[in-house]
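Researcher: Excuse me, tokens okay?
***
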Amino acid sequence: MPEGAGASLVGRIVAAEARIRSLVRETFVDRSPILSGLSGGGEVWLKYENLQHTGSFKVRGALNKILSLSKDDLARGVIASSTGNHGLGVAYSLSALKARGTIFLPTTASKSKIVALEQYKSVKLQFFGADAVTSEAHAREVAVVQHRTYISPYNDLDVIVGQGTIGIELERQCPRLDAVFVSVGGGGLISGIASYLKPLHPELRIVGCWPENSPALYLALKAGKIVDVCENPTLSDGTAGGIESEAITFNYARDLIDECVLVQENEIVDAIRLVLAGHRMAIEGAAGVAVAGYLKTAERYAGQNVAVVVCGGNISYEMLCSILC
């Protein structure tokens, strides 16, 4: 029987923390005067994963997965499919461990993302298909045929517990939290953080935040099963896309998320502007989703201590300029 959401992952997350600690940053937590001013006497803290290696939390899960592989598996080289933060996390991890891998990209991948990945000599880039779904399906097929390990961005327990190491840091940095706001795509980040913090603090509220234009896991939770979702363009490209039919994150999200918040594109824009103006931090759309989620529900969390996970900062110069102008 596969390990389900009811089983505690605390021990595995602690082991992951020890495994990856020397290769990741303990990102700092900073009190937000602006958001705290809206909290009715509470305190709001920003957890800056945008300052993690590669500009995103994704490196945690990728590192833990790769460090969990046998020497033979690692020698064959891993495979991933990503045009964004997951690909950078895999590339960084392989580079740090002097290992090799292949990352598949659609032929339509943006030049800026290709250039970012090309900086890592640890990975070979291969292009297939006109979209991310086709590219990923091909990457999985290649991994099976070549007997190589495919690293999913979220549908892998080693990846989930790697992301859960953020929970350990939050426990050290903000020991008296009432709620944690987390952006949700495939669900790996929120599953990991909640799997560590909820067993220690059952009263803690885990708040999942989605862009209205890309709410795949949210709609799955509403339906009680994974469903096909029509996706619309969103600034939160880091959380965009559907989820796999057998995604293990579904059960974790169902059992551990206490509240779901949907935010509109203009609310994501406002959140990015607020963090840049108030904290001198450029954050990506996915991180703006969590900030926007708190802004939308601040009255309900009046007087409470809240952490907002700023999951990444990889926003393009062109996109940032368009938001500011």
